[in-house]
Amino acid sequence: VSSQCRFTVKAVQYAERYLVIDLDQIVNNKYVVSYYDGQPVGGFNQAEYKKSKMVFRLVPAGSYTMGSPKDETGRTKANEKQHPVTISKPFWVSIFETTRAQQARVSGSTDSTALNDMLPKTMGRVDITGRFFASVLNGKLPSTVQLSCPTEGQWEYACRAGTTDTFGGAELSAVGRYKDNGNALAEVGSY
User: What is the pTM assigned to this prediction?
Assistant: First the structure.
């Protein structure tokens, strides 16, 4: 299981393309949630969107073929079978991994310094610690917004982004870190 986690949000509003949770603004003991149709001037790659805000992008409902074809680069599951999957409702997925600064703000911990606060928060077993983080954050969100780790189907659908080829047609080194590409944590949004 990966040691980094992105989250999905179930929210009742689907008119805009982005949902932003402001971890520095609290009203009635809940974080302020805003919706936007586009990115701000300068985009979401600015430090504030990696430290004090969590940004989610709307992924529309749709269908795709889950699983990799036999000849896909990096395929490791010999018994994997491709099969059709339908995502029946739109969902929100975070545009960055959760950073150390965001985790520290939500949990009240001090696991963040100026040198490493925009690195992804490594969470050990995401299925356990990711759910715990989501439950803590959900207690601080309006009842119309619920955070969770994405299902395997949602994750693959969002990653494929309407493509059928490996890594959306890009080279793996251009879209992420892995053991043959530095094998080190990098600031979220830097690749």
Answer: 0.81
